Amino acid sequence: MSKTGKVYLIGAGPGDAGLITVKGLQLLQQADVVVCDALVVDELLNQIKAGCEVIDAGKRSGHHRLQQEKIHQLLIHHAKRGKQVARLQGGDPMLFGRGGEEMQALKQARVPYEVVPGVSSVTAVAAAAGIPVTHRDYNSSVTILTGHGESQNKTLVAASQDWATLAKQDTLVMVMGFRSLELNMHALMAHGMSASIPVAVVQWGTLPQQRTITGTVGTIAKQVEAEQLWAPVVVIVGKVVKLRQQLQWFEKKALFAKHILVTRARHQSSDLSNQLREAGARVSEIPTVEIGPPRSFKKLDQALSEICAFEWILFTSVNGVEAFFERLHSKKLDSRALANAKIAVIGPMTGERLAKFGLMPDVVAADYRAEGLLKKLPARLVKHKQILIARAQSAREILPQTLKERGAIVVVAPVYQTVAPASSRQELVELLKQDLPELLTFASSSMVENLVKLLARSPKLLKQVQKIPAACIGPITAQSAKRLGFKVAVQPKQYTIAALVKAIKKIK
């Protein structure tokens, strides 16, 4: 009989994927099965390992995809199959979540479990709105409650709430209170709270689509209706709400709420996406490039068999470094085989990836194009030298051609090739039909070309996309974008991710 696995009840945080705890993320990445809530963002689910089973147990007000008893059964079933199960819930599962009930069910079934608390929306969402839930000049206590209740003839049915006591508190934070907002405000006023007490309602707190409405106990319900907010929201009641006017910060980020489409390579995290999110953007990622083996390893294998003869080895991309060393290791060789060579790379990130294999580049081109590396390799450094260029199957010829003109003996070895992943087409079409971005980003010509290929069967949609301003990392990519009908609005002087993000921030 197989050994029983374990269930981890993990708080995913209030929305922003960066607010999950370190331990929670580590356990999520190790899980065999993930049972997740509706409010868990895709960025977290992108962290799971290959082969991990994801079960959507989404529960939202008025709609339960799975009943709670069914969730209990799923957790027990998979754990008893010997699986490590991550039960991923928004916020903290121990605060108005079903964590306690799930613990009881697991305990009864004799299934091992562990709780990994999360950052609660109670404090995090208020903080993202610029509202500290406690401040010594305004309050000495905060009361947390569920605002959920049913209505019947405008009467609140929530026997567990002591509204007379709640109306006297310094600060109230209500979660799950959207549907009953008007009734809750009426109940507070009916039990003595002044209609002028400040209130904030924060929708999608900590995410780029965050919206905050401020008013008073007497006005907030009509304001929220007029602004067409909907769940999920957190409601903060009390004088601390006044501090938002001077302390709000999240909604003032340079790219706050701007919807940006990032084209990237499949199965690779995007530094560009991370930097854009840090600036407040709402990022949608679409893999337009898939990295695969070259059409033939013949040239690379020949070069590896003579690797000691090369005096320079040039890497033009992060993908080139990864693919080269994967092939090197398959030949039962490691970094020591490169001991006789100097190494040059295009772009600092390529140099960082090289360090992963215990090597530091001798030459780094600051920008991401061949011309930058050629400036660093004058004829005096390369004349009569044997040079190996590890690069993509299809690439510009300026680097090997110029080095040959400078007297070098050059071998070009394709180490990978890029293709347009057909599996991205439907995902891309659905995204664009649902919500067109305000800006496109391209970090290479192949990403532009493949985006066009993916939309080839949807010409009307392609025309719409071509009208969206595009941000390109450098002139080569920009030329490709213009040639294919895109409107290039951003092209930084330095051809780096950091410079691209800086330039995007300046768009009005």
Write up this protein:
This protein is an alpha/beta fold and 508 residues long. The chain has four domains: 6-119, Cobalt-precorrin-4 Transmethylase, domain 1; 123-252, Methyltransferase, Cobalt-precorrin-4 Transmethylase, Domain 2; 259-290 and 421-505, Rossmann fold (3-Layer(aba) Sandwich); 298-419, Rossmann fold. 34% of the residues lie in helices and 24% in strands. The chain is built from 21 helices and 24 strands. A ten-stranded mixed beta sheet has the order 19-18-17-20-21-16-15-22-23-24, sandwiched between helices. α13 (348-355) links the parallel β18 and β19 (363-365). The longest helix has 13 residues, at 68-80. It is elongated. 43% of the residues are buried.
In total, how many beta strands? 24
What integer value in Å does the Rg equal? 28 Å
CATH fold-level assignment of the largest domain = Methyltransferase, Cobalt-precorrin-4 Transmethylase, Domain 2
* Share in helix: 25-40%
Low-confidence stretches: 151-159
End-to-end separation: 64 Å
Biggest sheet features: 10 strands, mixed
The tally of domains stands at: 4
pLDDT averaged residue by residue: 92
Strand content: 15-25%
Our count of helices gives 21
**Order of neighbouring strands in the sheet with most strands:** 19-18-17-20-21-16-15-22-23-24
Fourth CATH level, the homologous superfamily of the largest domain: Tetrapyrrole methylase, C-terminal domain
Shape: elongated
Structural class: alpha/beta
Examine the secondary-structure arrangement and name the CATH architecture of the largest domain. 2-Layer Sandwich
**Name of the CATH class of the largest domain:** Alpha Beta
